[in-house]
């Protein structure tokens, strides 16, 4: 869950940044398994090279089924509040 926590810290630092919004969009789509977790991969270009590995770690969490865990849901609720308040 470190990737999710790192993403939250990034969003707390600057919820309006392209990186924050791109990661948030990715996290939101990773929760929608029925739709095939649709995320436009070209959006990864909006992430600086040093942040891109975080996106890949988030995808690995989805593969492991962690998006259904209570800790994922708790952190995601914090992200929802941040992004919506921004």
Structural write-up:
With 86 residues, this protein is mainly α. It has one domain (2-85). The chain is 62% helix and 0% strand. It is built from four helices and no strands. The protein has helices spanning 2-13, 18-30, 52-63, 70-85. The radius of gyration is 12 Å and the shape is globular. The mean pLDDT is 91.
How do you describe this structure in short?
The chain has 86 residues and is an all-alpha fold. The chain is built from four helices and no strands. Helix 1 packs parallel to helix 4 (70-85), helix 2 (18-30) packs parallel to helix 3 (52-63) and helix 2 (18-30) packs across helix 4.
List keywords for this structure.
86 residues, mainly alpha
Strand content: under 5%
Query: Any idea what the shape is?
Result: globular
Helix and strand pattern? HHHH
Tell me the distance between the termini: 24 Å
Number of domains: 1
List the helices and strands and how they pair.
Layout: H1 2-13, H2 18-30, H3 52-63, H4 70-85
Helix pairs in contact: 1-2, 1-3, 1-4, 2-3, 2-4
